[in-house]
Structures are given as structure tokens and as C-alpha cells.
Amino acid sequence: MKEFVIGKNDAGQRLDRWLAKTLPLLPAPLAQKYIRLKRVKVNGKGSQRDVRLQEGDRLQLYINDEFFDAPREDNAFLSVFQPRLDIVYEDENLLLLNKRPGLLCHADEQEKVNTLITHIQAYLYQKKEWNPRDEHSFAPALCNRIDRNTGGIVLAAKNAETLRILNQKIRDREIGKFYLAVLHGRMSPPAGKLEGFLLKDEDKARVTVYRKPVPGGKSAATLYKTLKTADGLSLVECELLTGRTHQIRAQFAAAGHPLLGDGKYGRERDNKRYGRAFQALYSYKLVFSFSTDAGMLEYLKGRAFTVEHVDFVEAYFPGE
Questions:
Q1: CA–CA separation, 112 vs 317, rounded Å?
Q2: Last residue of a domain, one of 68, 100, 117
Q3: How confident is the model over 23-71, as pLDDT tens digits?
Q4: CATH code of the domain containing 152
Q5: What exactly does this protein do (predicted)?
């Protein structure tokens, strides 16, 4: 319990508004719940959220200590009252989430709270599976990430050993990551392998594909297979053999077939014809193709997880 005495500058404020100012990490719906449960008392008694505070009033707050902290990136999850997660699979060690397009994996300069990782941490905190005050170093973390406007499966570890194993399996290419994409035109040949070297321009947040090694460039390889063509478009399945920034988008654009809706690597006039405002790219399947020992995660060996519905497939290739 923490106690506050209302001073002259706070007198006249509503109780709920005083709480919002004093505890910025406390979500408004949770603050209202605490008021209803009388975990917020004014002069030793329960109160209403719209009561006007008077100078000298004593407030007793029976609220978890973490809500009294100053807002920071590492406690932003406390501000999430109702986590929004599309869970593909969950067990005691990990989560597989279907990230919706438009949602950031991690915070950036503009968005600090509404990110996939804050929703995951809020979900596990509210389930009482994780409490940062009980941990010295570990926080639930993502093992892979995808672009803001790309949707699909993202892996999250609930404990440090799971994070270590999954990161190693990704580095060793023992976790298969499969994407669906819609391209302009037709690939020739209809199935094959795209290889090259990607060099990122940090200022433009854009990568360029080179056929030969360049200073600072990273090798990139993608397997692809055309599943269907219609109306000047192709539905393609891609398997990432490497995991570089904008790899699929840049490689297909360099091959002359940019992704539908991709304003960075494609042409706006081509995208407008089909009414697509962001890239038609989805991480729809993940396979735990372990070829070496996976320790405590060995039970996942050979398992595959798939997202059932991908919006652009249904929109441009109905029936697939």
C-alpha cells in the first residue's frame, strides 16, 4: 500500500484523472476496476471515480508496486490492458503468434506501447507466468521478426533456455520459414532459387541486390515455387534459406517481379490497379526441422504450424 496526501495543486481534480496523472502506467480500465474494488481509498473509505479531491485528503492505493514506476520501454507492457494476440500455438516454453500486418514487432521512435512484444509481455504478465520483478535479466523475447506491413508467424520464447535454443536453430537453418507472396507477372522459370548479396542503405531503409559480393553486403538465398497465375499476378511460395532485411521483397523486385502492393520496391501505378496498399507477403508456415539435438525442445521436432487464412490469397486467388 502507498499513501498520498493531496496538496493545493491537485485539489479539485477527479479521482480517476488524478490516478491517470500519478500512475501513467496504470491502464484506465484497470484503474476504474481498482476503484470499484475499493483498492483505491480516500480517507480510508472506498470512493467513486468522479469524486473531487480536496486539499488534505489522504489516498491509500492498494496497487502493485510496478505501476508506480516511471514509464520506460521495458515496462510499456503494463499499459496494455487487453493484449491482442492471435495465438497459433502455445506451451510452457514458447508462443507462435500470427502477427497482423501494420503491427510493429518492437518499439520504434513513433510507437512505444502498441507492439507485438509489449502485447506478449502483457499477456504473460496478466497470466502470472512472468513478472519482471522476479527476474534478474530475462524478459519474454522474440526469436524472429518480420516487417511492419508483413503478416505471419513470429516465434516468442518464454524462458532463457528456449530463447537460446531457438536462436541457435534459426542460425543453423533448422527452422523452416515459408512465405506466400503475390508478384507482378510470372517468374521464369516458375520454380527456382534466387541468390545474391544484399547491401542495406540505413538512411533510406532500403536494400540493393548485387550478383557479386560487395563490401558490407550479405549473402541471401530464397527458394520459390509458383503456385498459380491469374490476371497478371502470380501466387508464389518462398522458403527463406537466409533471413536478411527485405530479402524476399528486394530479390523479386531485382528479378523484375516486385511484390503486389510494395511501394518501396515496386511501382505505385502497378499496385493501384489491384487496390493493394502494402506488400502481399505473409509468413504462413513454420517447420521445426531439427537435424541436431534440441534439448528441452526436442518434442517440437518435425512439427509444422500454418496460418489458415491469408487475406490476399483469398482476394486475388479465391479457392486456393
A1: 36
A2: 68
A3: 999 999 999 999 999 999 999 999 999 999 999 999 999 999 889 988 8
A4: 3.30.2350.10
A5: Responsible for synthesis of pseudouridine from uracil.
> Quick one: cell of 22?
500519478
Task: Verify that 202 and 301 share a domain, yes or no.
Answer: yes
Q: What is residue 249's predicted lDDT score, i.e. its pLDDT?
A: 96
84: amino acid identity, one letter: R
| Same domain as 10, residue 115 | no
Contacts 24+ apart (CB under 8 A), 169-176: 169/288, 169/290, 169/294, 170/143, 170/144, 170/243, 172/292, 173/241, 174/288, 174/289, 174/290, 174/291, 174/292, 174/294, 175/286, 175/287, 175/288, 175/289, 176/239, 176/285, 176/286, 176/287, 176/289
The stretch 271-283 carries a mean pLDDT of 93
Active-site residue (options: 147, 201, 262, 270) = 147
Question: What pLDDT, on the 0 to 100 scale, is given for residue 221?
Answer: 96
Q: Which domain holds residue 218?
A: 175-316
User: Is 86 annotated as catalytic?
Assistant: no
User: If pLDDT is split at 50, 70 and 90, which confidence band does 319 have?
Assistant: confident
